Amino acid sequence: MTARREPSAPPTLPGYRYVRLLGLGGFADVFLYRQDLPVRDVAVKVLLAGSLDDDVRTRFQTEANLMAQLSHHPSIVTIHQAAIAADGRPYLVMEYCSRPGLAQRYRTEHVSVHEALRIGIRLASAVEAAHRVGILHRDIKPANVLTTDFGWPALTDFGIAATVGQGAGATVGMSIPWSPPELLAEHPTGDERSDVYSLAATIYSLLAGRTPFEVPGGNNSAQDLVTRIERTPLPQLGRHDVPPALFAVLERAMAKHPSRRYASAQAVARALQQVEADLGLPVTPLDLPDMPREPDDERQPAQSDDATRLRPVVEVAPSVPTWSAVPPPPDAPEQPVTELLVDEPVDEPSGGRGRAVTAIVSGLVVLAAVVAIAAATMNGTPDPNPTSSSDFSQPPDSVAGRDVPSPTGLSGTRQADDTVVFTWTNPEPADGDRYTWGVLTATGEPELAIVTQPTVVVPSTGGGEVCIEVSLVRADGRSSDTPTQGCVP
Predict the structure, then answer these.
(1) Using the 8-state DSSP alphabet, how is residue 262 labeled?
(2) Residues 126 and 231 in one domain
(3) Model-level pTM greater than 0.85?
């Protein structure tokens, strides 16, 4: 292992005065600056000098443009400016969020159920707002949720975001602990429901104080996490104050197969509102623009103009609190889940009116039934899990019984621009092989990413030693028992 790298030099920016370092990243550093006019503190994200290839520049520009489209949302970090410094490094000037973000809080604080629900609903509003303008975040996790000066969660880092309908694409930079199974598959695929999974995984971490499939005191390597994410039921939160209804919401949102999840972040938010109402808590309103979903979205029917803006839920299912009910057995068939009703208009300063939104049954439940019938017709027996996918099935015993070797020949070469190129060899190549890798530091476990080729480029580190670990991952999800590690002085 090696100590954390030295930060890059803060650039000289006209109209801003450097204050201090805020954080280090894989491709950029973040600094606190003081803006001269208007006077305010701002966070400035600056690309590392060794990261200025075309792909990284494109990601940086994409992040600036996407966040600018969404900056009006109260739970998305505001972008003030994007430009290029005198030394050639691109930078973003962003809202400075002074309070501890979720990455710090979930490991060190006991977050109340009330606060976790409020944060979850506000984040779901932000994710839904992004989806409505055609943007998938693809990397929702505690580290990408800051906290504004007024205590609101603020989603940031749209660097690997994609356009809705574009597909998952490359998964480099993806954070494994909060990623859904379909993004960990040999051929990644994803849509809005992938963000739904990561949103719920983030709320889970806030409540549990750990990542969803992390085993306290156990082996939590990348290969173990991937296997659990793909095959293990969601572990209980281990808190007596969390109602079963809240765990049921997270469990559905993090279902292994996308068709069993909530169809949208909006649906997650409404389910969380229902839990608030059942607990007798104030219902957190949704922050969504006055715009309908796309008419061709089969998972959410278009609404009339008067019903496109969500109102605070005044009366939600006034019946026996759902948290007092006994949850169904794990092997019980999934029941159709209806949308909540907004029963009364709510006066707002804008003068708009609310309209009752009719409860609907997700079309995906019908699709699941069709799949079940088709399976019964072909096999002669009912399929107990009609929505399961072969992507998440257990491998044959003959395959599972063989150990996955560790990569060999890991070596690195420092380039003229101070980046380090690492390469390694796959001792037993097989179809669908991938690799998890991460930079080793003295401050904690590496944040792992997935690549398909046996090479990675580590950005400039300021001349210090660079160490990484690499594991081989088979198409069936099995991985090397021991990662291979290597360093470059």
Answers:
(1) -
(2) yes
(3) no
The answer to whether 440 touches 485, Cβ cutoff 8 Å, is: yes
Q: Which residues belong to the active site?
A: 138
Q: State the total domains in the chain.
A: 3
293 and 149 share one domain: yes
| CATH for 423 | 2.60.40.10
Domain that holds residue 452: 403-488
Q: Which of 206-215, 230-239, 388-397, 418-427 has the lowest mean pLDDT?
A: 388-397
The answer on 435 and 453 residing in a single domain is: yes
Confidence of residue 170 (pLDDT cuts 50, 70, 90): very low
Task: Give 421's contacts (C-beta < 8 A, 6+ positions apart).
Answer: 412, 413, 415, 455, 456, 457, 458
d(CA 251, CA 30): 35
- Dihedral (Cα; 467, 414, 158, 207), 10-degree rounding: 10
* Cβ-based neighbour number of residue 232 at 10 Å: 14
Q: Is residue 127 part of a domain?
A: yes
* Residue 43 pLDDT grade (very low, low, confident, very high; cuts 50, 70, 90): very high
Per the model's pLDDT, the better-predicted residue between 279 and 345 turns out to be 279
Number of Cβ atoms within 10 Å of the Cβ of 4: 13
Q: Judge whether 385 lies within some domain.
A: no
Q: Are residues 109 and 86 in the same domain?
A: no
Count of C-beta atoms within a 10 Å radius of residue 419: 21
Helix (H, G, I), strand (E, B) or coil at 217: coil
- pLDDT tens for 348-383 read 333 333 333 333 334 444 344 444 444 444 444 444
What order do you get walking across the sheet with 466-473 strand by strand? Answer: 449-451, 434-439, 466-473, 484-488
The amino acid occupying position 166 is Q
* 141 marked as part of a ligand binding site: no
Q: Alpha-carbon distance 61 to 350, whole Å?
A: 35
Query: Which residues, at least 6 apart from 378, have a Cβ–Cβ distance to it below 8 Å?
Result: none
pLDDT at 51 over 80: no
Same domain, 37 and 175: no
Last residue of a domain, one of 49, 68, 95: 95
Q: What does each C-alpha distance from 193 to 136, 226, 466, 468 come to in angstroms?
A: 10, 18, 36, 32
Mean pLDDT (whole number) for 318-338:
42
Domain end, chosen from 95, 114, 143, is at 95
- Per the prediction, the chain carries an average pLDDT of 76
Tokens 């989806």: give the residue.
131
165/221 Cα distance (integer angstroms): 32
